[in-house]
Design brief:
The complex is a heterodimer of chains A (about 350) and B (about 325).
Chain A lengths: L5 E14 L2 E14 L3 E5 L6 H6 L9 E10 L2 E2 L6 H5 L6 E4 L13 H13 L3 H14 L5 H4 L9 H14 L4 E5 L7 H17 L3 E6 L2 H7 L2 E6 L2 E7 H6 L4 H8 L49 E4 L2 E3 L15 H15 L1
Helix pairs in contact in A: 3-4, 3-6, 4-6, 6-7
Chain B lengths: L7 E12 L6 E12 L3 E5 L6 H8 L7 E6 L2 E2 L6 H10 E4 L13 H12 L5 H14 L16 H13 L5 E5 L7 H18 L2 E6 L2 H7 L2 E6 L2 E7 H6 L4 H9 L5 H6 L19 E6 L2 E5 L1 H13 L7
The chains are: A alpha/beta (about 350), B alpha/beta (about 325).
Chain lengths: ~350, ~325
């Protein structure tokens, strides 16, 4: 992965929000290198900051939020310094586009499907009139909409949920972006439709040479689409690595807990593993490892000092003191040990 | 499977639910029959619009069936029933809803929310008795009785869903219809709610009708599953039997589409697509509801049955027909 080009580089990003007179730190010095052409999945629970983190790449933070410090380097410019809408319009859609969760609400019900896609083409690719229409029909057929000439003149209410999501994707891709951010792209859809949309997104990524970021809490979707996985907790990326590394050789206790609580790893008739407690209150300063209070295996230092990244492999790192050479050996839960053993056997044989 | 006695608690016979009138008529549930044993967890899976929620709503009598019977503990509960039975059924069948952010009254305190069913049925003698019941329900779901004086917005998603469970069990029901009870929750909270439901089932001998589209959760929690497609049950079996040998092409498509949280398995799986045209000969050879192996039913015609038999025999399963 080292020889690949970094397309977007986030360094020590801090994002704060003002809420009811108090200040909340949603992103706490998070860093990320996004490689060109990769597919990165950001996983985490609600409130972990995964949406806020990616929204900041497009200047889509709510009005009460701001980038407090840190950089977002993209094509030689620091997006964290952008202030005006005019600046953002150079990036938003054109360079970085987004597919939102709910296709019911992200389309304009009063405009035809064709007009909405064509609008994006005219605005971002500078092509007008008949030619833009031709291109629109091309994009509609690319996203798997049958009979695009006829569908061009139809309104969103004439489309099913899955078809609407295809239109939303067509609009995003029609902007000809470098990076496509998919925020829970299939959560609102049925499983059979979900599978089709994921296939579509993977196909488009190849065809248009996109770098994709998936934001999701569904680890099944992650297993399907991701080259790399970043695990977010309390506003920071606490573990990042290749898909297999994070699934089969997780290092951070939070990642262990997240994977162990999946029903697939549970034994029928027995209790499922659960994470005790609740995520930390982001209105307060967090001392040490943010997950420590919920971690039965926490070390003393976890409550005192925030762990840095420890490298597990050239492509895999995690922020946990357990990886420090001086740390006592702490075994992960049984289900995780089993995964790891199986993986070691398979990768050696 | 030992926890299940073979006593039937709920029986649904040829249920049909229609919406709209005459030309705009839409059949949401079409000739659906199944039964639920006492103490088991029965899963109903299908996609949105398949009618799974409508079945749940028909059982709890929020929608009136166009035809068919719903029999609860030996008594017919749909249509005109007397007041006593109405009250009894209202108490004994309870429901847990999907989104704990939307299903709790924002302007009422938790005490009122949990007590509301009791108030409606007046099945307590003194106010102390009601309070005692409510506090016990809170403890049962792992919440402190102190929380009763708070409002729903003061709770996290997982705690809210516990409140949703508390207001169901405070009625001391026999059957709980859980309609997508964990779909709106985060992964780690899902596990908590599933554990809570399993624990309550053990302690109180509850029976669950678990309606969901998340098939991995269904596999984990249910004893038997019915797969519903466009208002019709196409396959029904003991959970493990069904997951090992799904037969109906719709079931197979549905199962193959579930994302597996394991990159190797997920990427090597074979995605199947359901094409309703595969039942092209249903006009001359209509499908029947057939028990193909013990406790495994499938909707199939003669031609399809031959194919299913071959699949089962290949996998070393004894075929009944």
């Amino acid at each position: 992965m080292d020889n690949r080009k970094v397309i977007l580089s986030v360094k020590d990003l801090v994002i704060k929000f003002r809420l009811r007179g108090q200040i909340l730190t949603a992103i706490r010095e998070a860093s990320l290198d996004l490689y060109e052409g990769e597919s990165l999945a950001i996983v985490g629970e609600s409130g972990s900051g995964k949406s806020v983190f990616t929204k900041s790449f497009m200047g889509l933070l709510d009005a009460n939020g701001w980038i407090d410090s840190g950089n977002i380097m993209f094509e030689g410019e620091d997006l964290a310094q952008y202030k005006s809408e005019k600046d953002w319009l150079k990036i938003r859609g054109k360079k970085i586009a987004m597919v939102f969760q709910d296709p019911m609400t992200s389309l304009n019900p009063l405009k035809t499907i064709g007009k909405q896609v064509q609008e994006a083409i005219e605005l971002h690719q500078g092509i007008k009139g008949e030619e833009a229409k031709k291109l629109t029909i091309q994009y509609l057929s690319d996203v798997g909409i049958h009979d695009p000439e006829k569908r061009y003149n139809q309104y969103p209410h004439e489309f099913s949920g899955g078809m609407r999501q295809r239109v939303v994707i067509a609009i995003a891709v029609a902007c000809n972006p470098k990076i496509l951010i998919c925020d829970e792209p299939t959560t609102a859809l049925d499983v059979t439709i979900q599978a089709q949309i994921l296939e579509l997104l993977k196909g488009l990524k190849e065809k248009y040479n996109l770098t994709t970021i998936y934001i999701t809490h569904d680890l099944g979707v992650v297993a399907n689409v991701a080259d790399r996985i970043a695990v977010m907790y309390a506003g920071d990326i606490i573990e990042i690595g290749l898909c297999e590394e994070v699934f089969y050789n997780p290092q951070h206790p939070y990642t262990w807990a997240l994977l162990s609580s999946l029903p697939q790893l549970g034994v029928k008739g027995q209790e499922l593993f659960t994470i005790k407690g609740t995520p930390p209150n982001l209105f307060y300063d967090i001392k040490g490892d943010a997950f420590a209070p919920r971690n039965p295996r926490a070390l003393k230092i976890d409550f005192v000092k925030r762990p840095p990244y420890f490298q597990v492999s050239p492509t895999h790192k995690a922020k946990t003191w357990l990886l420090d050479p001086r740390a006592p050996k702490v075994e992960p839960p049984e289900s995780i040990r089993a995964l790891r053993q199986q993986w070691e056997v398979e990768s050696n044989g | 499977m030992d926890k299940r006695s073979k006593e039937i608690l709920l029986e649904v016979k040829n249920l049909r639910v229609e919406f709209g009138k005459r030309r705009k008529k839409f059949v949401a549930v079409d000739d659906v029959s199944f039964h639920i044993y006492k103490g088991e967890t029965f899963g109903l899976v299908g996609e949105s619009g398949s009618g799974k929620t409508t079945i749940g709503r028909a059982i709890i009598r929020l929608v009136e069936p166009a035809a068919g019977e719903i029999i609860f503990d030996g008594k017919k509960i749909n249509g005109n029933i007397d007041k006593e039975l109405d009250k009894e059924v209202t108490r004994r069948i309870q429901m847990i809803f999907q989104d704990p952010m939307a299903s709790l009254n924002e302007r009422a305190k938790v005490e009122y929310i949990v007590s509301e069913g009791l108030y409606n049925l007046k099945n307590y003698k003194t106010d102390e008795e009601r309070k005692a019941k409510v506090e016990k329900a809170m403890l049962d779901v792992g919440l402190l009785p102190e929380f009763l004086s708070r409002f729903p917005h003061e709770f996290s998603g997982g705690q809210r869903q516990r409140i949703g469970v508390a207001r169901a069990i405070v009625m001391e029901p026999d059957l709980i219809i859980a309609d997508e009870p964990i779909s709106a929750l985060d992964v780690s909270i899902r596990a908590q709610v599933l554990n809570l439901m399993a624990d309550l089932q053990k302690r109180k001998g509850l029976t669950y009708l678990f309606i969901a589209h998340d098939l991995s959760v269904v596999r984990f929690i249910t004893d038997r599953v019915a797969v519903i497609y466009k208002g019709k049950i196409v396959e029904l079996a003991e959970t493990e039997r069904l997951y090992q040998n799904p037969l109906h092409p719709y079931t197979r498509a549905l199962f193959s589409a579930i994302p597996i949280p394991d990159p190797k398995l997920e990427r090597s799986k074979n995605l199947e697509v359901y094409d309703p045209n595969c039942h092209f000969d249903y006009d001359e050879d209509p499908p029947k509801w057939i028990e193909i192996e013990p406790e495994h039913f499938v909707l199939a015609n003669k031609r399809e049955l031959e194919g299913y038999k071959k699949i089962l025999e290949k996998n070393g399963v004894q075929v009944l027909i």
